[in-house]
Every structure is written in C-alpha cells, then in structure tokens.
Amino acid sequence: MLAIANRLRNLQNIKTRSFTTATIARNETNNSSKKKVSLYSKISPLGNPNLAMTPELDDWVDTGKKVRASEVKQIIHDLRKRRRFHHALEVSEWMNKKGICAFTPTDHAVQLDLIGKVHGFLEAEKYFNGLTEQDKTGKTYGALLHCYVRQRETEKALSHFQIMKQKGFVLSPVTYNDIMSLYIRTNEVDKVHDVLNEMKKNGVSPDNLSYRACISSYGGKMDIEGMEIILKEMENDSNIVMDWNTYTVVANWYIAGNLLDKANNALKKAEKQLVEKDGLGYNHLISLHARLGNKDDVVRVWGLQKSACKRQLNRDYITVVKSLVILDEFEEAEKILTEWISSGNVYDFRVPNIIINGYLKKGLCDKAKDLLDRLSKDQKVTTPDSWGLVALEFLKKGDVGASISCMETLFSLQLEKKDWKTDSKVFEKLLDGVGEKAGVKDVESLVQKLKNYVKFDRGMYHSLMKGYINGGKEISKVLEDMKADGIEEDEETKRILVLQQN
Description:
Elements: H1 2-34, H2 39-43, H3 54-62, H4 69-81, H5 85-98, H6 105-119, H7 121-129, H8 138-150, H9 154-166, H10 173-185, H11 192-201, H12 208-220, H13 224-236, H14 244-256, H15 260-272, H16 279-291, H17 295-308, H18 314-326, H19 330-341, H20 350-361, H21 365-377, H22 384-396, H23 400-412, H24 424-437, H25 440-450, H26 458-470, H27 476-484, H28 491-501
Helix pairs in contact: 4-5, 5-6, 6-7, 6-8, 7-8, 8-9, 8-10, 9-10, 10-11, 10-12, 12-13, 12-14, 14-15, 14-16, 15-16, 16-17, 16-18, 18-19, 18-20, 19-20, 20-21, 20-22, 21-22, 22-23, 22-24, 23-25, 24-26, 26-28
C-alpha cells in the first residue's frame, strides 16, 4: 500500500510540473505576442524631423521582416495627418524606390502633394511632368493644382484649372474648393461666392469645406450678415452633415467682431458636433474658449478630450497649456505640464516653454528660472535662448547677479556646440545690458564662456561696446577682441566710438 501511495504522489508531482511548465510556456507566448513590434511602432516614435526614417525601414527589410503595402500607406497617411510631411515623403519615396507596390495614380498624387509641401511647386511640376500619361489623371492634376494654390501661384493655378476642364475631368468639390482657397489666400474674397455659384450651376454639390470657405470670405471682410446667410443655407442643405469645424470658424469670426454671445452659442453647437476621438476638434474648442476668457470651459473640454481620446499628443498638451497661460492660470498650466511629463510622450521643450514665456511676459522671471532649473535637474532639454531671455528679464529688473547666475547655469549644462541654436538678438540685448550693469571681470568671464558656443558677430560686439559706454567702462579691450576675430571697424563702429568721446 505504501508503495502504491508513493507512486501516486510521484504521478501527481509529474502532472503538477507539467501543468506549471505548460502555464509558463503559455505566459511566455502571450507576453511575446504582446511585445510583438510592428513597422509602425518602430517608425512612429521618430518625431524629430531631423532624424531619417530610411535606416529604420531598411533595417526592417534587412532583418527579414515582411513589409505590407497597406501598412506603409497607413504610416504615410498618419504622418501626413500629424503634419510630419518630411517623414511622410521619405516613407513614400522609400516605398516607391523599393517597389513595395506598383504606384497607382492616387499614390502618385499623395507623393506629388508631399513634394509640393516639402520642396515647393517647381519640384512638384518636375514630378508631374515625369509621370506617364496613364498616371496623369484627375487625382494627379488635382494634387498639382493644390500645390499651386498653396503657394498662391494664381496664374498657374487658374491655367491648370482650365486645362482640367478641357480634358474633361469630372470636377469635384475639392477642385472648386482649391480655387476658393486661392482667392482667400490672395485676398480676392469677393470672387469666392462666384465659385460657389459656379459649382451649383455645373451640378457639383458643395461640401462642408465649400461652405466654410464662403463663410470665411464673408467673415474676412466682417460681413457678419452675409456669413450668417451662408451658414443658414448650409444648415438647410440636405446633402450636408453639420460639423464642429464650421461652427468653430463661425465662432472665430464672431470673436473678431466682438460678438461674444454669438461666439459662445456657436461653440455650444460645435461641441454637439464633436466626433469621439477627434483631438483636433477638442483643441479648437479649447483655444476659442480661452480667447473668450472661459477658464471653466477650457478645463471642462480638456476633461472631455481625455475621456474621449485614448491618448493625448504633444499637440494637445501644447493647446491646453497655451490656453491656460492666456488665461493667466499658471498653476493649472503647471499641473498639466506635470501630467504631460509623466505621460510617456516624446519630450518637446515647446510645452514647458509656453509657461516660461508666459511668466516672462508677466515679469515673473523667478518663476521662469525655477521652471528651467527643475527641468535641468530632471535632465530635460532646455534651450540657450530660454535661459538668455530669463537672464535678460532679470537685467531689466536691475538684478545683475541673477542674470549672470542664469548664464552660469546655462554654461554648466555643458550643451554641445551644435545645440546652441540661438537668436542673436537675444544675446545682443544681453551683452548690452550686462556690459552696462555688471563689473568688467564678470562681463569678460561671461564673454569668454559664451564664445565657446557662439561665434561673436559684429552686432554682438557693438552691443557689448554700447553697454560698456553706457556703464562708463573702457572699450579698448572689446575693440581688440573684435579685431582679433577678424571683424574690422565699420561706420556703425565709428558712430559708437563717437558716443564714448561725448
């Protein structure tokens, strides 16, 4: 009996071990499937427009992974939607070059449009002229027309439009909308309604964009009554489904005309037309509520957006932070900033910089510096210009020590020289102020450290000289340094020297 019992226990242990092993195997398989990397997930994080996508795409192919044309086209679509046109064009060109699929006229139209956006209409023309006659369809003709309109090439656009008519292409609302857009861009708004009438005459039903263009043409000349007539016509058009975008356009013109009650009513209508997960719609509403001073509505709509949309993009955070800063709601803006930092989104200095600039406009340089300090402490990227502007604001308040301290902090970050993309005007003003108000040793120390990153030009030396003169200091050393840098005296230098003599 004991032997039988032992055998039963051993059998049970084997079953348990088998069950455990199978469970672990299943879990590992599940985890592996969860961690499966798609081509889109490899490319999407590359938000920096200076980073090339081609190496990632080539690596994907070189490692034997499958590339589906539909997935690549979806990537291009999403990149265009996010206005990452350089990247979208790069992916489109790669797809064409690698022969991922045979390009259709629609694919050519997309690439042509991207070329126009990135390189201009002349390059788009070259691409169009290189297409076969079979690929020169209404799609590609329309894409080239769009390029002309975008760059306000009126003569080329209208000539191209006539060719499209002569070739018998079935004109869509999109084509007419481009012509309306052209007249708005070239400030010929009186012609827009004529295009709308021509559409109807030719049996082309206006779409939402057609009506919005006409609404904007009346709003642009502050003809509110004319705008409202078109809006009413649109609302009564059985072919039209009203959308949030139209009502936000109307609200914008009401705000411009100081018709605030009408603007608020338009925003209520816009909110009713919001499509779930349409972050752009929420962004428009938030921005317009900020312009109307509706702080509670800004916070409320932001809450709705977070509930409706799976995740918030940097664009969304920029919109809400900017809106709160406009309303002087800095505490609320900093809360959103904290939320953004922990969101996992790609770090973008534009988000905190909105608050920094807001503080500076209010003269709150201590708060601006505190935010920069916190970002630096957390090893987040800041920019030389942001530190320079804060230092400049301290100078305006007469706090030379704090100004120099800002610059010392900037130098301590040990940024690479390539990261010093600065506005020379900021540092010219700074050198003028420091030159006037700080001691010679502090100024010389600051200048020497600044020269490690910035090439001093004539304007910067002149600003430093003016500061020295206003502060009653001798400028001979500055002149020597300027000449040592290969910058000769010019008429402006001589005028500055006359100031010293006086």
